[in-house]
Amino acid sequence: MMNEITPRELARLFDSTNQLLRLYYQKPKWPQIYPLLSNLAERYYLFYQAYPKSMQAQLSLYVPRYEYTTNLVVNQCVLISALCHSQHYDRTITEQMISCCLANYLCVQKQSNKLAAKQALDEQDKKHWQLRHQLAVKLLHSAGTMTSPIQHLLARLNKYKQALLSAPKIMIYDGATTLVALANIIAMNITYRTDEQHISLYKAVADIYLRTPNQFAQNSLKALIAHVGNYLPASNITLNDQVLTYLCSDENQRHILVDLNNPEKVRWHRVKATFNSHTKQRVCNDARLLYTVWFSDNLPSLIEPDSQQQRQQTYIDLISQLKVQKEYSFSALNKLLAPYPELVEQLRIAVKPYNKEQQIGKDLRHCLSMVGYNNAPAIIQRVIFDTLVAHITHPLASHFIKRLDNLVKITQALVRNTEQLQFEQITLSLYGYVMYLTAHHSTEISRKTLFEHTRNGHYSAPIATIFGVKNIDQYALKAYLNQLLADNPWTVHLLASEQQKKQTLGDNEKLWVAIKLVALYVFQPKTVFSSWQTQLIDETLVRLNWPSKTEFYAHLQSLAFTDHF
After folding, report:
1. Which helix (H) or strand (E) holds 282?
2. pTM > 0.85
3. How far, CA to CA in Å, does 256 sit from each of 228, 253, 268?
4. How does residue 5 score in pLDDT terms, banded at 50, 70 and 90?
5. Residue 482, number of CB atoms within 10 A of its CB
């Protein structure tokens, strides 16, 4: 854990980065590498959260007492922190990507410095450079720590860098690797070189934006520039024939500038003006600009509360307050939803399937009369969940939102012939499950389907495997879902379907297993089911009033799945 955030700690952060890159050449110290790397990732994250402008300033400043590669790695770590912050990614995801940036040049400091100085690499250096990511993984393993997420990021990195700048389009799918690749490309373009061939941050971002065919990368670059703003901290500007340094802008859009021409004194200015800034990275030995001015009382507090995270928690609390087994009066629901007019607007759209004319509800009272007060709590909860899911921040958000949508469609398809089952009430547990995965397994979520990797043959594979998560703490999941959906009986059945042996499952638990098996059929059509799985699907379809399996699968094919079929 980092000490109090101070200018000295900021200087130590970059000293520690330099120290990390030198450990490869000290074999007895290899076991120290992973602990130091993890600690550094945490410190970069915490520093960026507390003083983002001080970190962004490093993109303007090249510290000559460190070599080129250290400055490059610092730039890459700052950029990945900014990219993650601009998209509200959580701490676990951010620190994992910072760790990958730190590991990127872990074994090739000397070769990277030679390349920057345009010195030729000998055959040994070339081989070393080519194997740099495999060597980095080997080093991290020497600490005896599980490093597979970093290993996977590094293994894809070069391919992704090529794909981001390639035409024709090369398909890439992993958001985290895309962001690390972007940070690396930008850092290589902006880090100071003596031949002045480096470019400004804004030009580097614009160049990639125009070249890349990847939509996720383009959206990430736009978010980055919106977050940094029009002027890069620590860039020089010319105002009234005087060279000043831009630090930040206050809430009134006044620019805070400093005059550092006098080594004994810092002069502060606040101006409302438009000016040109010189944003190419430059050599800086002034410790005041590198470290101390960012902690001055002359700077406004620029840390804004995460309103998105606060709203998310408010919605989660609201879901917990609603009880699907309780029949509410209009006044009770009106009081509960009064602070959330945006949810009422979503509810007006959500009730369309409940009338033949597909009409939008006029207001809350009209919506409740359309769906019935018995069904209302579950439908309202689903509207809230849909809102939460739509605003999930994760590098693979678009993928698992589509996958969740498909699971909901599959559930609705299975029970469509059974009037006594309200599919919204069933699917609430799916939504809660996905919220748990994003909160507690964010770095494990992947595009893979790991359904076949179960604890053993006696248990049905958990839903987590459909989202690429192999192992899940069932006790923590149970506590989370019971807190969120305390009186929903389908939550109990879902948990039992994953925690009880197959031979002891009741009909409602088997429905959850059937949902997972049909999902597997949709996502991986070549899957061969066991005799027990086939029998369970057949029995479930009969129980849910489907005339035949053929008719059910024909209906499945008519659905607009946004995943494989």
Report:
1. strand 282-283
2. yes
3. 15, 9, 7
4. confident
5. 15
Query: What are the backbone dihedrals phi and psi of residue 255, each rounded to the nearest 5 degrees, phi first?
Result: -85, 130
In terms of Cα–Cα distance, which of 198, 188, 189, 187 is closest to 283? 198
The Cα 506–Cα 502 span in angstroms is 9
User: Distance (Å, rounded) from C-alpha 545 to C-alpha 565?
Assistant: 24
Alpha-carbon torsion 450, 452, 453, 454, what sign? positive
Higher-pLDDT residue of 71, 173: 71
Q: Are 38 and 96 in contact (CB under 8 A)?
A: no
pLDDT at res. 455: 47
Task: Output 79 or 251, whichever has higher pLDDT.
Answer: 79
**Most distant pair of Cα atoms in the chain: their distance:** 88
Read off the tokens for 123: 């055959």
267-271: strand order across its sheet: 267-271, 255-259, 242-249, 236-239, 277-278
Type of residue found at 518? V
C-alpha span between 102 and 292 (Å, rounded): 25
What is the β-pairing status of strands 236-239 and 277-278? antiparallel
Mean pLDDT along residues 535-541:
95
Helix, strand or coil, per DSSP, at residue 334: helix
Strand partners, 268: 258
Average pLDDT over residues 410-428: 92
pLDDT, mean of residues 362-372: 92
Q: Residues near 110 by Cβ (< 8 Å), separated by ≥ 6? A: 125
pLDDT in tens, 258-280: 999 898 899 999 999 888 888 89
Q: What contacts 349, CB < 8 A, 6 or more positions away? A: 360, 361
